[in-house]
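Objective 1b of the project was to move from sequence-level analysis to a structural picture of ligand recognition. The entry below was assembled by the postdoctoral researcher (A.K.) and checked by the PI before modelling. It contains the amino acid sequence of the target and the SMILES of the bound compound, flavin-adenine dinucleotide.
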Amino acid sequence: MKQSLCSVTSNVEAIPGIHLMWIDAPDIAVTAQPGQFITVRCGGFTLRRPFSVHQSSPLTGGNSGEGEIALLFKVTGKGTLWLSQQQKGDRIDILGPLGKGFSIEQGSKNLLLVAGGIGIAPLVLLAQHALSQYQLTLIHGASTAAQLYPFSSTGKKRSKLTPSLKGVQFVPVTEDGSMGKKGMATDILSDFLDWADQVYACGPLDMYKAMAKMSLRAKRNNLKLTKCQIALEVRMGCGFGACYGCTINTKKGLKQVCRDGPVFELDDIIWQEVTI
Ligand SMILES: Cc1cc2nc3c(=O)[nH]c(=O)nc-3n(C[C@H](O)[C@H](O)[C@H](O)COP(=O)(O)OP(=O)(O)OC[C@H]3O[C@@H](n4cnc5c(N)ncnc54)[C@H](O)[C@@H]3O)c2cc1C
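Corresponding predicted holo structure:
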């Protein structure tokens, strides 16, 4: 983990209300693992705001001294509003990479990625890291077509806006039916569970609760249980384990989301106790 003042290289509203910001951050670009996050000092706020590493370029290795990371963030309050107003050349104070990210088990071949809304943010980096070795399906659920990720499954990287995710099967789902199936991401999850060796999810609390219920049902009916890792985005204080502000009770005892997570096994969380 390193604290640095880094230059913004671009910042655009990629999806209505959602910004894609690229930051010149060579150390984080080569070390950040999918699911890890950074914290940003947003304007005058004492508490830094956490954001998943959404993309990195280059992905790994190299010590050329060059490298950028991207954040994909939704403007929800004063901190993210400030961040959305930063422009090319502005310098921001970032700290990271932080936390424990996703892991892929030996022997897994087919990975199912499930994103609800802005939960797509950490899953794109996971897809970028995994696509050369694994079969990937990415379900993205959004309210309407305009809120879907600008996904490109062709080899061509059209712009910094659209990473090349060649070979990834993209499955859009929208609540109003304007693109893909009508409904929620979890409505079509079961269609892919026989295929998937592992599931990785990031989304709102209700999505996780629905997934936990599906898992419980599968356990009760002795059906195939696909291991599922989720990224938990609870409110955080320090972001690196000093303040215990993000401690949650799990089936494996008390855990700090910022240091022991944010990635956890779906079935380890006591969902009735989680508030976001
Ligand atoms: C590990 C981690 C990774 C994250 N990654 C991303 C990301 O990649 N993209 C992204 O858009 N957001 C992400 N978030 C959420 C993001 O940190 C918050 O949206 C942000 O801190 C809000 O700051 P604010 O000052 O704009 O809003 P505030 O004024 O602090 O709050 C505004 C609203 O946002 C809600 N909010 C605040 N913090 C969170 C939170 N942690 N999770 C959910 N809702 C929250 C509040 O309840 C309130 O309704 C992540 C959170 C965590 C813990």
